[in-house]
Design a protein that fits this description.
It is built from twelve helices and eleven strands. By secondary structure, the chain is of the alpha/beta class. The chain has two domains: 172 residues, Rossmann fold; 155 residues, Aspartate/ornithine carbamoyltransferase (Rossmann fold, 3-Layer(aba) Sandwich). α1 packs across α5 and α1 crosses α12. 51% of the residues are buried.
Amino acid sequence: MAGQGRYPAENGAFGAVARSGGAPAISSDRGPTYLGTASGRSRRDTTARTRIGDCMKRDFLAITDFSSYDLEGLLALGADLKSGRVVGRPLAGKEVALIFTKQSTRTRVSFEVGVRQLGGGALFLSGDTTQMGRGEPIRDTARVLSRYVDGIMIRTFSQADVEELARWATIPVINGLTDLLHPCQVMADVMTGVERLGVPAQDLDVAWVGDGNNMANSWLNAARMLGFRLRLACPEGYDPDPEILAAARQDGAVELLRDPAAAVAGANVITTDVWTSMGQEAERIERERAFQGFLVDGKLMARGAPEAIFLHCLPAHRGEEVTDEVMEGPQSAVFDEAENRLHIQKAILMELLG
């Protein structure tokens, strides 16, 4: 029986495939490990480690799984990997299983390329061409793959399934996306803001415009852990996960608003996502009606700080949540953002498997 994860409201079947659906201003002087020691971790250290026998293995299922200090280390390492200051093949001789039950472009390519650039091997596993799609228990899949490979990345529907996989696997598990969270993407977004604006992560001033979806939830987790200001503008009825929102409000400078213009005022990062995500196609017309007034256009961007950048995790529906003018304009950093998926994920892979 599938167990409850950190977010009990998120449950689902692993075989959900049937559903339709300048230099950076971050320091790299931490030494060769980049991430914090026990004595250096912040009070927000919620690091996810699972005891397997006499060993501790580490997962990256949510941004809150790493301490603030360790997240800053990942940002520094990602920047050094991008610049070429860090080279080598730390995953030589190691294999990573990449599990997909949702369609993907950036997640698949960036993880496959990243694993190979680090010297490892990447094995693509699709839910509809393996026993996972025929109902094999997650606990069995986890234990079998743990005998074959050195790490698992999974992109699927349910956060509870990812939690279950990590619980039973004896190797590190990385969350490539669920309906609840998209931690790798938001870490790439934070890296892009730091890189383009030349400020530390805590000096970001982020405005989210649109659905309170997995991206919004992960932005909340990032604001909570890294200490930057975050304002979300969501229509009534489309708020982020209430538990994640409450935790972020307690620990960080977070506001939930209904007016996009108020949310973006003075922001140096303005970001959005599609109004209808995978698996929500039946709600498309209703959502288009609810999100009227939440289009990111030149007028809305002008309310941000003069140096403000625009981010979008892609794919974008131009003319729906964002105009072509903004996507192709000088403030757009969406393709730097997409590239940074590669570099921050390589940093995560190095920390967990290297």
